[in-house]
Design the sequence.
């Protein structure tokens, strides 16, 4: 089954070129089933790239998913044409009375700032509070995961001595939950961040479950006990060349940056990196969408959050 997106979204042509089944709004209007309603708060500056990465992962599912993109009005995006935002994005004021089966809150390149110093922090807090009653299950990614853990549970981020960048091996703390169905005992995922969270703080909170860790990268996956929130510290959605583009960008800026770990063959940046995380990244998004959104969300969207109100 396809993922439903706006007819003219730039990602449509890219995904169709990869033989990924997407459905335009016009075609979806002629199907008599209820698609899942999914909201993506895209905080990344490279919005079209992030859109495409996430849609690629969400599309490989037997579920029809209707995606809506959200941006923060309290921050002026410098890397995207305003026409793109006007055409394909909505604001919180426009959707605050709606309810969604699932939501994704992306990362953002603001890790070295205090949460309260981020110009859209108040707006993000308003949105995260709103998810308690208007979203069935929310997935937070990288900085978005740290922001969610801080806002909902008071867990602070920890600065690292150097940037954590590369492909790292992970193990499963809770291998038998549906979130990891189909996973191997160990798997690889990309990380790209300057901060982390303390695993013990997660373990000390009975309302949270530590799901997966890495000896080198630390905490990878956490969820709330009621499955309403997932926190992913890495970037499963990254393309094969994303870490390379980030590395060369930082080199061009003159930053003292190390070659991403376990990424370039023989740690040689002149060689083409090989993707080693695609299969498990796909499973992660598909399992969340199937087991924690589709299987448990009410058919009547108005019932979402009724227990919390």
Sequence:
């Amino acid at each position: 089954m396809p993922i439903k997106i706006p007819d003219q979204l730039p990602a449509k042509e890219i995904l169709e070129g990869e033989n990924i089944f997407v459905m335009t709004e016009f075609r979806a209007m002629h199907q008599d089933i209820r698609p899942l309603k999914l909201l993506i708060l895209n905080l990344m500056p490279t919005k079209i790239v992030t859109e495409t990465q996430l849609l690629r992962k969400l599309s490989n599912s037997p579920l029809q998913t209707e995606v809506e993109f959200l941006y923060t009005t309290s921050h002026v995006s410098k890397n995207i044409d305003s026409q793109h935002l006007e055409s394909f994005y909505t604001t919180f004021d426009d959707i605050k009375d709606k309810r969604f089966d699932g939501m994704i809150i992306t990362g953002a390149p603001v890790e070295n700032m205090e949460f309260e110093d981020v110009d859209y922090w108040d707006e993000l807090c308003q949105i995260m509070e709103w998810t308690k009653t208007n979203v069935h299950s929310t997935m937070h990614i990288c900085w978005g995961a740290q922001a969610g853990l801080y806002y909902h549970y008071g867990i602070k981020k920890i600065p690292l001595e150097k940037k954590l960048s590369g492909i790292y091996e992970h193990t499963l703390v809770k291998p038998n939950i549906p979130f990891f169905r189909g996973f191997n005992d160990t798997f690889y995922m990309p990380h790209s961040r300057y901060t982390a969270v303390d695993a013990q703080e997660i373990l000390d909170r009975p309302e949270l479950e530590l799901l997966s860790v890495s000896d080198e990268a630390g905490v990878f996956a956490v969820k709330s006990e009621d499955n309403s929130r997932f926190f992913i510290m890495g970037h499963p959605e990254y393309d094969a060349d994303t870490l390379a583009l980030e590395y060369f960008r930082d080199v061009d800026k003159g930053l003292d940056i190390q070659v991403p770990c376990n990424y370039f063959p023989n740690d040689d940046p002149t060689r083409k990196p090989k993707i080693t995380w695609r299969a498990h990244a796909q499973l992660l998004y598909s399992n969340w969408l199937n087991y924690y959104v589709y299987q448990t969300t009410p058919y009547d969207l108005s019932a979402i959050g009724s227990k919390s109100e």
In short: The longest strand covers residues 158-172. The chain has one domain: 3-303.
